[in-house]
């Protein structure tokens, strides 16, 4: 099982996860988003719709080792914690509950920015097993950004009570990432969830971001052409196709970030990354 670790401002050695944990290479990139990563081996982002039991999963993994504050420059609450699994330290960030990564609120801005620009080692998307159809759009949006995803199929105890059965193996094949059945309130499936997090965090060759192709050739050409323009302007951006899709959909947050240059600031390589590229 997971062992909770100290987090910034909590308990002795605040900000230090464990003696064996090294500062992750993307720490500076995360710091730009207002995160205080401390010392750790991997960063896990916890995403999901409201009322999926996401906070229960977070509490089960971190215990009392949590730090709550606000995201930099925003009134949106931020919760961070830590845990150890297999002798390795993990920092976990509980993202605001959101139905979508399309930027229409401050909560969605935060979730999108952390996933797209923070590049966590693992993103756990918590979904409600009793309302799977409603929850899957967020999973697909996250999969379009990254392949380092674990889906926590939570509230399976409630699903069983209502006679609902989900084919976890089939869902895993369709999504291309691990899907783990959990009932976090009862501790059910948490060991399997931790094993899946470790598997994804340590994978040398994770799945590629999901590429949803459009049957309309004209639309596909527009997406490809705009993605090339975005790549030319922001060469460090990790997923230009996703940004191009958001621009075509009229995402106001992405549009504003392109206009004022914020997109470039967030996507710019850190000093260490730039030095490695130059060397």
Q: Tell me the strand percentage band.
A: 15-25%
- Within CATH, the superfamily of the largest domain carries the name P-loop containing nucleotide triphosphate hydrolases
Q: Which structural category do the helix and sheet elements fall into?
A: alpha/beta
Quickly count the domains: 2
Order of helices and strands: EHEHEEEHEHEHHEHHHHHH
CATH class call of the largest domain: Alpha Beta
Any idea what the radius of gyration is?
Answer: 19 Å
Helicity range = 40-55%
Largest sheet: 8 strands, mixed
The termini sit apart by: 41 Å
- How many helices? The count is 12
Instruction: Count all strands and give the number.
Output: 8
Q: Overall pLDDT, averaged?
A: 80
C-alpha geometry: globular
In the CATH hierarchy, the architecture of the largest domain is: 3-Layer(aba) Sandwich
Could you name the CATH topology of the largest domain? Rossmann fold
Low-confidence stretches: 5-25, 270-279
InterPro entries: FeoB_Cyto, FeoB_GTPase, G_FEOB_dom, GTP-bd, P-loop_NTPase
Protein name: Ferrous iron transport protein B
GO molecular function, one term: GTP binding
Domain FeoB-type G: 41-203
List keywords for this structure.
16% strand, disordered C terminus, Rossmann fold, alpha/beta, FeoB_GTPase, globular, 8 strands, 12 helices, 279 residues, GTP-bd, FeoB_Cyto, eight-stranded mixed sheet
């Amino acid at each position: 099982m997971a062992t909770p670790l100290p987090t910034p401002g909590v308990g002795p050695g605040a900000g230090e996860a464990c003696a064996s944990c090294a500062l992750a290479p993307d720490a500076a990139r995360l710091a730009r988003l207002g995160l205080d990563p401390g010392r750790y081996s991997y960063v896990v982002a916890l995403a999901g719709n409201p009322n999926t039991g996401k906070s229960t999963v977070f509490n089960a993994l971190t215990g009392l080792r949590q730090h709550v504050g606000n995201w930099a420059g925003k009134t949106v609450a931020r919760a961070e914690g830590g845990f150890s699994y297999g002798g390795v330290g993990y920092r976990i960030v509980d993202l605001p509950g959101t139905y979508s990564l399309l930027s229409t609120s401050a909560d969605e801005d935060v979730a999108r920015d952390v996933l797209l620009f923070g590049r966590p080692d693992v993103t756990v998307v918590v979904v409600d097993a009793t309302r799977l159809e409603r929850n899957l759009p967020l999973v697909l949006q996250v999969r379009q950004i990254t392949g380092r995803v674990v889906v926590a199929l939570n509230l399976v105890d409630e699903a069983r009570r209502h006679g609902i059965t989900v084919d976890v193996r089939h869902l895993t094949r369709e999504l291309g990432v691990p899907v783990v059945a959990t009932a976090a309130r009862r501790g059910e499936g948490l060991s399997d969830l931790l094993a899946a997090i470790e598997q994804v965090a340590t994978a040398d060759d994770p799945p590629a971001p999901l590429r949803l192709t459009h049957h309309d050739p004209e639309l596909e050409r527009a997406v490809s052409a705009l993605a090339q323009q975005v790549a030319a302007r922001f060469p460090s951006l990790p997923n230009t196709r996703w940004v191009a899709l958001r621009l075509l959909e009229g995402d106001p947050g992405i549009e504003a970030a392109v206009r004022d240059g914020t997109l470039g600031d967030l996507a710019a390589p850190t000093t260490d990354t730039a030095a490695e590229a130059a060397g």
